[in-house]
Design brief:
Shape: globular
CATH class: Alpha Beta
Distance between the termini: 46 Å
Strand content: 15-25%
Number of strands: 8
CATH superfamily: Aldolase class I
Length: 215
């Protein structure tokens, strides 16, 4: 499973990229707004780190506007994937963009039927938002299970990018199901590394090491 950071922070991205566990980055208008930088400049800065997959979202709501923005975004860097919302206009735009060779990440997906449509128009990624479903009393992981099963049934090449990840259990369950990618905030990725028994074990080893004769 690939692990993406859901952030636009250069500091956060560089930190995990240097560790060696990061496969990509997803951004959205809300995340970009926090950074106080011009959108395209920020994207170039992220791509310059060497990140192979960087999702950048259009903000237009009509098909022609999405096409204009998507074509501009894809020219910024070869690592850019264009994020398009799951709407009728977004489906039309994705069909055209994917036909032109643009890699599209179809976002704001909340049902398996929507995921099926995203695949039919050639999306490279489909991004179901599991945390937001959990907030509404639904089990977001059930949606991932349905999408993965449908895609396997028909040999669909669109990759399942699990979004709105809230905690490490989301990552674990998505991996068990067979989702291709999970994108998460920096704090969640940090927690993947951590376990209290690891900390206790390391402290004990170091404590015992102090008892070993030196010199």
């Amino acid at each position: 499973m690939q692990l993406f950071l859901d952030t636009a922070s250069i500091t956060e991205i560089r930190s995990m990229w240097d560790v060696g566990i990061l496969d990509g980055v997803t951004t959205n208008p809300s995340l970009v707004a926090k950074e106080g930088k011009k959108f395209e400049d920020l994207l170039r800065e992220i791509c310059a780190l060497g990140v192979p997959s960087v999702s950048a979202e259009v903000v237009a709501t009509d098909t022609e506007g999405m096409l204009r923005e998507g074509r501009r975004l894809r020219e910024i860097h070869s690592s850019i994937y264009v994020k398009v919302p799951m709407t009728t206009a977004g489906l039309r735009a994705t069909k055209v963009l994917s036909g032109e060779g643009t890699r599209v990440n179809m976002t704001l997906v909340f049902s398996a039927n929507q995921a099926l449509l995203a695949a039919k128009v050639g999306a490279t990624y489909v991004s179901p938002f599991i945390g937001r479903l959990d907030d509404q009393g639904q089990d977001g992981i059930d949606l991932i299970r349905d999408i993965v099963q449908i895609y396997r049934n028909y040999g669909v090449r669109t990759q399942v990018l699990v979004a709105s990840v809230r905690h490490p259990i989301h990552v674990l369950e998505a991996a068990k199901i067979g989702a291709n990618i999970a994108t998460m905030p920096y704090a969640v990725m940090e927690k993947l590394v951590q376990h209290p028994l690891t900390d206790l074990g390391l402290a004990k080893f170091l404590q015992d090491w102090e008892k070993v004769p030196k010199g």
